[in-house]
Design a protein that fits this description.
Blueprint lengths: L21 H16 L3 E3 L15 E4 L6 H4 L6 E3 L6 H9 L3 E2 L1 E4 L4 H10 L4 E4 L14 E2 L8 H6 L5
Parallel strand pairs: 2-3, 5-6
Antiparallel strand pairs: 1-2, 4-7
């Protein structure tokens, strides 16, 4: 995490850009503070944040449980909450135990496990062995409180067609 570059999101060398508003920055701070107050261990590398704009340092939480707000709410900032699991079934149950379902990622060497887990996860996008890579021809949208409908791809266009 200490090698992540914070800065101009239009610069191809930047890893983490600015937060979109003062309100969102306040929400990220409040959730991060709640995670720490609820007993999760917080780690953020020392990094220089730009002097203008809305910035939050990349932050990692360990010791997180399902009871923590940072495990149940969408933060939309450079914050990672780490939960542990013993079995793939437990991982799926924990991932689905939230009112949100925008995206999920599966990291495994077993192709059959990827397909099984992707089918069980209630998320709009499920990546395997990568994260945040989009195919513009594929539909995108969340489940539950993370969105309504789909955009992009054929599914996203169907709402605008009368056929």
């Amino acid at each position: 995490m200490s090698t992540l570059r914070v800065g101009d999101p239009l610069d191809k060398n930047t890893d983490i850009g600015a937060v979109n508003s003062a309100e969102q920055l306040a929400r990220i701070r409040a959730l991060a503070d709640a995670g720490e107050a609820e007993g999760a261990e917080r780690w953020a590398p020392a990094c220089e944040l730009p002097s203008s704009g809305y910035w939050f340092p990349p932050t990692l939480f360990t010791g997180v449980t399902q009871a923590h707000r940072i495990a149940r709410e969408e933060i939309f900032g450079p914050v990672l909450s780490v939960l542990t699991f013993r079995t793939p079934e437990e991982a799926v149950a924990k991932a689905n135990n939230t009112p949100y379902g925008l995206s999920a990622g599966i990291w495994t060497e077993k192709g059959s496990r990827i397909l099984w887990m992707a089918n069980k996860l209630r998320a709009g996008v499920v990546w395997s062995n990568t994260f945040n890579k989009f195919d513009p021809a594929s539909p995108f949208g969340g489940y539950k409180e993370s969105g309504y409908g789909r955009e992009g791809g054929r599914h996203g266009l169907e709402a605008y067609l009368d056929v």
